[in-house]
């Protein structure tokens, strides 16, 4: 054996050892090789740019400079399973869909309600099912047993939220068509501003995801919840139409459902009741009801 060939063999053996150690490390970290291999080379090399809504507790929010929430915890777990880094950018809700379209972001963890309009530009991986809930200040004599009871009242909503389109329709078809006063819908650029408008008495009711408002009521002790929810839809992660990242995230979520980590994360945040999913799905314009 020549000296050169001996060095080559040693180098090959060393490389094999490194690759083997890397494989063991990946396996130990819970990386799913099949899901990892299905990702594009760009994601494998550069990671995934994630837009995260910064004002929607307990799903996604920033507190004392730290990004928190059950959806954030879920994103971190998915990153580990896919074996690629997720680079998080906490931002306002209204810039996330444009950011996905422009490829500034690759996925939005922003509790998107899945709607027909959004399916024109995005595919979705639902994380739970949730409807619109309604909260108002304790002590207010508001009897809200159904959507008709919203007629003539002021309602605060987040700009860009799907609840606005839905309640605009309710106002026209349930209120105005019956000769009742319309719902006075007021949009705010942050969820905190919408809630503050109600707590300060400027608006009567705040409308948002039912689990989100239940969390608000529990944490503050200042709000009561209406006795109904509207229009339950899937809520979850948005990706660009046709991006292979969608099926990979779906696979990661299914693996988490199978091993119980999905339920554990939800339970840690107290949202493991109604709305939990039993199977991961990918919702697209071509298959809106998988």
Q: How many β strands by DSSP?
A: 12
The overall pLDDT average reads: 88
Structural class: alpha/beta
Estimated share of beta-strand residues:
25-35%
State the distance separating the first and last CA atoms: 62 Å
Spatial extent as radius of gyration: 23 Å
The 3D shape can be described as globular
CATH topology of the largest domain: D-Maltodextrin-Binding Protein, domain 2
Largest sheet: 9 strands, mixed
CATH level 4 superfamily of the largest domain? Periplasmic binding protein-like II
- Give the number of helices: 10
Low-confidence stretches: 1-29
Give, in order, the helices and strands: HHHEEEEHEHEEEHEHEHEEHH
Provide the CATH top-level class of the largest domain: Alpha Beta
What's the CATH architecture of the largest domain? 3-Layer(aba) Sandwich
The domain count comes to: 2
The share of residues in helices is: 25-40%
What is the oligomer described by this structure? single chain
Protein name: Transporter substrate-binding domain-containing protein
GO cellular component, one term: periplasmic space
Domain Solute-binding protein family 3/N-terminal: 47-273
Keywords: Signal
